[in-house]
Write a structure and sequence with these properties.
The protein has about 700 residues and is mostly beta strands. About 10% of the residues lie in helices and about 50% in strands.
Length: about 700
């Protein structure tokens, strides 16, 4: 889908990124004198860069991020979802999120960070995920943060619908502090939305729907919600700390509580009066469906630089959820029918509450616990003429359990399931040609990847994955990726063991008869599901045709064939009904009355998809440089005047490693820099206050080497 964004607030991010590579090449530490009149310059990846040589499909600098007008990282990810969504995965779980080129326990670690804390955001293709121990089914978003940032935020908002109810209120408070690799972030949020009824919109009533023969109500639109009344409360906290010069630890904890109250119309039923059957509304008490969900989650991540070329990452997470759903089913009509047969009541009169009794309700509860841990080791095995052979090895394990219960008409059914997975994944990057290393430069940069994984699933056995592909950059600004992947995936515990929930008066569209009808819908898990088997081919290209214009063209073609694919029967078509006749029920007149939406396996599913788009950013007006306060002297000038040789020392070059060495600017806790922040972030031309001769961390480049 084409995407066009215009940025008009700041030019800082774009200009800083443009100067990044130039300054990296100009630092004296990167220059090595080979002869008296020959100089060889060795480049270095900027701090926070991802592993490998696959370039970003798009980069958002400060001006680009400001142009979206959002306040948090989660809101920004929602805005750029068209760029980060993948057509290679089985479901859109969102991208893999990295922070400063390192793994984190989950997106919760950064979801509530203010966008002003971001220096740059890189969007990378799915193949980069392999280098971080993930499957090549999700794109990668690398968030590079300012090294100095602090904010206290309080927001309040309200909204109203154009007609009827639907008003909403929201508020949040948050605190964030970033200092080098130390981070503290705490956010609390509350939101409430009123319900919106069908009677408040122009919803067309089914003329054949049951009515109230007493004339009290002509239809049930005033008792049916288009959107339910909801409330949500959230508390999210993250703490990250630099344990040593080579190790960083982070922890995240989050609690969510959500409620939902929906109305599903009025209870209806069929009563027999002699030879006549009357379908009618039974009472004016609406059918309620109330849901309450509590989720507690926690995650921890540890990143360690084992050497200049090898790194280790350990992440773990745990989540507990408790979801309760109460659904009104209607009335038991045995007593009413008996009174009608005895002539005690009129079939078209008001039915006494004493005969109707209490509303029948189904109560369902699901308790789910999930935990996971993974160890990733990546580095360089040996050197080939075109570059280093990279290896990524991941060992992982996870466990999950689901306990569900459902009570209907006083009868309780329970279901318990658990699953334990253990897996390993290995990936190799083999450089074939490299313009940078001067090996077959006519081919540009060409790298092959081979990856394989095996997963032992406790209730399914062993499932394997095998993939291979090529990444080719024939020239700067053009990247072509081809990949083949074969994998098998078992159904989730939810798909197999969720509690069975029966919901009355659900509106669906019947494509067989071409009409909207009200049906009883059954949802939940299907224990008979089996694992699927998928074969996938991808060919993608990213082109940046103009060096001075931020324009990116991209296209991805994906072809996949899945045997024993898992689908949910949410639609009503002739093909689905013919294939699964037991999932659809119709009355004698052919009207749909019941649908079972629980997942099923189908013999084969084929998909061929071509996605293309463009991203264009243009700065309409460059900001003016703020005037420094009178008498201001940057710390690096004061250090030069004091002869601080330690601070004036230039960093050592690190070859082609993705991350700077410990002790280099941006590489450890000793690299100090503060930034002038305007509206929470630093303009591109604000004077950075850090050591000369290098980047000074991911949020600036520092002044030129040496004293002024």
């Amino acid at each position: 889908m084409p995407c066009l964004s215009l940025s008009c607030r700041r030019a800082g991010g774009a200009l800083l990124l443009a100067g990044c590579s130039l300054f990296a090449l100009s630092t004296p530490a990167a220059a090595q004198s080979v002869a008296s009149d020959d100089i060889v310059v060795t480049g270095q990846a900027p701090p926070g860069a991802v592993i490998g040589d696959i370039p970003a499909q798009n980069q958002l600098g400060r001006a680009d991020i400001d142009a979206y007008g959002v306040g948090t990282v989660s809101e920004l990810l929602d805005e750029i979802a068209s760029q980060t969504s993948s057509n290679q995965g089985r479901s859109d779980d969102g991208p893999v999120v990295l922070v400063n080129g390192k793994r984190i326990s989950g997106v919760n670690e950064v979801s509530d960070l203010p966008t002003e804390a971001i220096l740059r955001l890189d969007i990378l293709p799915e193949e980069v995920a392999l280098k971080y121990g993930y499957d090549a089914q999700r794109k990668v978003v690398n968030i590079i943060l300012h090294r100095r940032f602090r904010s206290q935020v309080a927001n309040a908002g309200a909204g109203i619908a154009t007609a009827g109810q639907g008003e909403n209120l929201a508020g949040d408070v948050g605190y964030t502090r970033i200092r080098d690799n130390d981070r503290v972030s705490v956010t609390a949020r509350a939101k409430s939305s009123a319900s919106l009824l069908e009677s408040e919109r122009d919803v067309i009533v089914d003329p054949e729907a049951a009515g109230d023969p007493t004339g009290r109500v002509s239809d049930d639109r005033a008792y049916r919600t288009l959107s339910p009344a909801t409330r949500s409360y959230m508390l999210n906290a993250t703490v990250a700390h630099q344990l040593s010069g080579t190790a960083n630890l982070s922890w995240n904890g989050r609690a969510d509580y959500k409620t939902s109250k929906a109305l599903n119309g009025l209870a209806t039923g069929s009563l027999t009066d002699g030879d006549e059957t009357v379908d009618r509304i039974l009472s004016l008490d609406p059918l309620h469906q109330d849901t309450r969900a509590l989720t507690l989650s926690s995650g921890i991540s540890l990143n360690v630089d084992l050497s200049k070329t090898w790194r280790m990452s350990v992440i773990g997470s745990y989540s507990h959820s408790d979801t309760r759903t109460d659904s009104d089913r209607g009335y038991d009509l045995d007593d009413v029918q008996a009174a009608l047969d005895a002539g005690a009541v009129d079939v078209v009169g008001v039915l006494p509450a004493s005969l109707l009794g209490g509303m029948g309700t189904q109560k369902a509860r699901a308790l789910q616990d999930t935990g996971s841990a993974s160890l990733l080791v990546n580095g360089k095995l040996f050197k080939l003429p075109a570059g280093n052979v990279g290896m990524n090895l991941r060992l992982s394990g996870d466990t999950s359990s689901l306990r569900s219960s459902s009570t209907l008409d006083g009868v309780m059914s329970q279901r318990t399931a658990s699953r334990t997975n253990g897996g390993a994944q290995i990936s190799f990057d083999l450089p074939i040609a490299s313009r940078r290393n001067g090996f077959l430069p006519v081919l540009g940069t060409l790298t092959a990847n081979m990856n394989a994984s095996v997963t032992q699933v406790s209730d399914y056995g062993t499932l394997g994955t095998l993939g291979y592909g090529l990444s080719w950059t024939p020239r700067t600004g053009i990247t072509i990726i081809a990949a083949v992947n074969n994998d098998r995936t078992a159904p989730t515990l939810d798909q197999r063991n969720s509690p069975t929930i029966t919901t009355s008066n659900v509106r669906v569209y019947d494509y067989v008869r071409g009409e909207s009808v009200t049906v009883t819908q059954v949802s939940g898990g299907n224990p008979a599901l089996t694992a699927d088997n998928r074969h996938q081919f991808k060919l993608g290209a990213t082109v940046k045709p103009l060096t001075k214009v931020n324009l990116t063209l991209s296209a991805n073609y994906v072809s996949s064939e899945t045997r024993d694919a898992i689908i949910s029967l949410t639609g009503v078509s002739s093909a689905l009904e013919a294939a699964f006749p037991d999932r659809y029920s119709r009355d004698e007149e052919g009207m749909l009355t019941r649908i079972d939406t629980r997942s099923v396996n189908v013999a084969r599913e084929e998909m061929k998809q071509l996605r293309w788009g463009l991203n264009f950013t243009q700065i309409l007006r460059k900001p003016k440089r703020p005037e420094p306060p009178a008498g201001f002297v940057p710390p690096w000038r004061r250090a030069a005047a004091q002869g601080d040789e330690a601070q004036m020392a230039a960093p050592k070059a690190e070859g082609d490693d993705a991350q700077p060495a410990e002790g280099a600017p941006g590489g450890g806790p000793d690299a100090e820099q503060d930034a002038i922040l305007v509206d929470g972030h630093r303009p591109d031309d604000a004077t950075p206050m850090g050591p000369p001769g290098g980047f000074g961390g991911p949020d600036g480049f520092g002044p030129p080497p040496g004293p002024p």
